[in-house]
Design brief:
- The strands form two sheets. Strands 4, 5, 6, 7, 8, 9, 10 and 11 form an eight-stranded mixed sheet that branches. The protein has a three-stranded antiparallel sheet with strand order 2-1-3, covered by helices on one side.
- It has 16 helices and eleven strands.
- Strand 5, helix 13 and strand 6 form a beta-alpha-beta unit.
- The structure holds S-adenosylmethionine.
- The site of S-adenosylmethionine has 17 residues, from helix 12 and strand 5.
Length: 415
């Protein structure tokens, strides 16, 4: 039987879905193997889009599948995986049902193929649709509680593209030039799918890609002219770039050589300078003193679920527990290195309370640090600090302007 055009993209999508759901791999890890041999950029983009939509809407797709099978298909059954992809294409990517059938059913043989065909055709005849907002899984609902309702509207679509400008004075001119919108000085938002490398200013390094929420921790350290900052978990370097662009003399430390290579490339392209240190922060001994330490700690990254919807299905109490321990070890080190008068920022791109608010409370109970509450006038319009003076963002915020990643940021001073 001849292979339908578009079949390689679906086969890759199934491999990626399987790697995330059964092996707990990240989408990035899964892509490397699954897209091997898929050469056309369009097919690669299609495979990514199919898996992205499938993971974003997984709970709702499963509810539809379960509504038309007599016996519930096991979570890891191949026909369920194929049906998830088929429905995501028909209901989210507007792929005509006949094209979905032609390209996806060859992923199965025999009885499972007939079953998937039957379920898909029944659902198409019923003219089923998805809800307006994706339903979160029970595991996510248990963790996020009431907040899930506020967050979920931010997960309907993948996010737009945010840029951070090296020179915030250029915001108006560059926003106009690129046809974007700006949510604050130094920020530009472009439509999803914008060919970034072709945009004006890329070659000269006038900006870099960074989610709006991820731009906030360095903003909260203010201008750094004549001052030194340690960016403790720095790679690939978004925060190093914005700190250095704000005048800070930055030491960027990270344990991961590959990620530091990206940081090096980012510095080169933007013409921004920073000292790079490849080291384990847990054994490193800084030779200098710093006016500020920014710990953008490793975390479960559930705050990036708009771009990485795999986190909605891979992360659970075990990973959260492991991360909170690593974060506390890193916090211990950072606080030890803070000289009197220096500022400490703890940030995570996580929506999990254990990695965020609970860690800030633990810091206040454990260390002799003075809170430096974040003030409303330090934040872009539409964002407010919490009662404790911390900043919590999530994808449902600034929804009418395209939302933003989930971040938690808190700030202290060493007395
Ligand atoms: C959230 S990411 C940092 C993102 C970065 N700040 C940025 O803005 O691009 C966390 C980083 O922590 C690094 N990391 C994890 N454990 C570390 C350790 N023990 N010492 C140094 N870096 C570590 C990881 O390699 C990863 O690059």
């Amino acid at each position: 039987m001849a292979v339908a055009p578009g079949f390689p993209a679906r086969r890759a999508a199934l491999k990626m879905l399987d790697a995330v759901m059964r092996r707990g791999e990240t989408l990035e890890q899964a892509e490397a193997a699954a897209l091997k041999g898929v050469d056309s950029p369009a097919d690669r983009a299609l495979a990514r889009a199919i898996v992205g939509e499938t993971l974003r809407w997984l709970t709702d797709l499963d509810l539809l599948i379960d509504s038309s099978t007599k016996k519930r298909l096991p979570d890891d059954a191949k026909p369920r995986g194929v049906l998830r992809l088929m429905l995501a294409q028909a209901l989210r990517l507007d792929t005509p049902p006949h094209a979905v059938i032609a390209t996806c059913l060859p992923l199965l043989t025999g009885g499972p193929r007939r079953l998937a065909h039957g379920v898909f055709s029944t659902l198409m005849k019923r003219e089923v649709s998805l809800p307006d907002v994706p339903t979160m899984s029970d595991a996510v609902l248990t963790r996020w509680g009431k907040r899930a309702e506020a967050i979920a509207p931010g997960l309907i679509d993948p996010p737009e593209v945010d840029l951070a400008l090296k020179n915030p004075d250029e915001t108006d001119a560059r926003t106009l030039d690129m046809g974007g919108v700006s949510l604050a000085a130094g920020h530009i938002r472009l439509p999803r799918g914008t060919p970034i490398e072709k945009m004006p200013g890329f070659d000269e390094g006038a900006w870099w890609v960074q989610d709006f929420a991820a731009q906030l921790p360095s903003r909260l350290l203010g201008s750094g002219t004549g001052k030194r900052a340690l960016d403790l978990c720095a790679a690939p370097g978004g925060k190093t770039l914005s700190l250095a662009a704000r005048g800070w003399t930055v030491t960027a430390l990270d344990i991961n050589g590959k990620r530091l290579e990206m940081l090096r490339e980012n510095l080169k392209r933007t013409g921004i300078e920073a000292e790079i240190v490849k080291a384990d922060a847990l054994t490193y001994h800084p030779a200098k003193q710093f006016d500020a330490i920014l710990l953008d700690a490793p975390c479960t990254a559930t705050g990036t679920c708009r771009r990485h919807p795999d986190v909605l299905h891979r992360i659970g109490p075990r990973q959260i527990g492991e991360m909170t321990e690593i974060q506390q070890s890193l916090i211990h080190q950072a606080v030890e290195w803070l000289p009197s008068g220096a500022t400490f920022i703890y940030a995570v791109c996580s929506l999990e309370t254990e990695e965020s608010e609970d860690q800030a409370r633990w810091i206040e109970e454990t260390f002799d640090l003075e809170p430096m509450p974040i003030a409303a006038d330090e934040l872009p319009a539409g964002l407010l600090p919490t009662m404790e003076g911390w900043l919590r963002t999530h994808p449902g915020m600034l929804a009418d302007q395209g939302g933003l990643d989930g971040f938690f940021i808190a700030r202290w001073r060493k007395p």
